[in-house]
Amino acid sequence: MASKFEIKTAKDGQFFFNLKAGNGEVILTSQMYKAKAGAVNGAESVRSNAHDDSLFERKVSSGDKPYFTLKAKNHQVIGKSGFYKSAAAMEKGIESVKRSAADARIEELLE
């Protein structure tokens, strides 16, 4: 299975995307957008920025779980990972985003 961006509608009618790796696992989730076009533009921004390691911000949750965000060159957060069990696992997640984003197709799963 190839990697893909899934554009979805949230319960409140806003739009967001998940970047899924080739194994189907969600590796990055976007913020909410008021318009579908915003979510599509966000996915395109991930494609154009994921290659730059300096745009990944490594963080630790209040529950001491590592996670990361990906920022655009304007410093706005484009997407956030889930929580990881270790910093090493988080780094693998970052590498997965870097590998997956460039060739991921965009699939709309709208209701």
What do we call the CATH topology?
Answer: PH-domain like
Cα end-to-end separation: 23 Å
- CATH structural architecture: Roll
Q: How much of the residues is beta strand, in percent?
A: 25-35%
Weakly predicted, low-confidence segments: none
Percent of residues in helices comes to 25-40%
**Shape verdict:** globular
Q: Provide the residue-averaged pLDDT.
A: 95
Tell me the total number of β-strands.
7
Q: Could you tell me the radius of gyration in angstroms?
A: 13 Å
Question: What features would you describe in this structure?
Answer:
- By secondary structure, this protein is an alpha+beta fold.
- It has a single domain (about 5-110), classed as PH-domain like, CATH 2.30.29.80.
- About 25% of the residues lie in helices and about 35% in strands.
- It has helices at about 35-50, 85-100, and strands at about 5-10, 15-20, 25-30, 55-60, 65-70, 75-80, 105-110.
- The chain has a 7-stranded mixed β-sheet with strand order 4-5-6-3-2-1-7.
- A hairpin with a 5-residue loop joins β1 (about 5-10) and β2.
- The chain is globular, with a radius of gyration of 13 Å.
- The two termini are about 25 Å apart.
- The relative contact order is 0.25.
What keyword list fits this structure?
PH-domain like, alpha+beta, globular, 111 residues, 33% strand
Topology:
Blueprint: E1 4-9, E2 15-20, E3 26-30, H1 36-49, E4 56-60, E5 66-71, E6 77-80, H2 87-101, E7 105-109
Parallel strand pairs: 1-7
Antiparallel strand pairs: 1-2, 2-3, 3-6, 4-5, 5-6
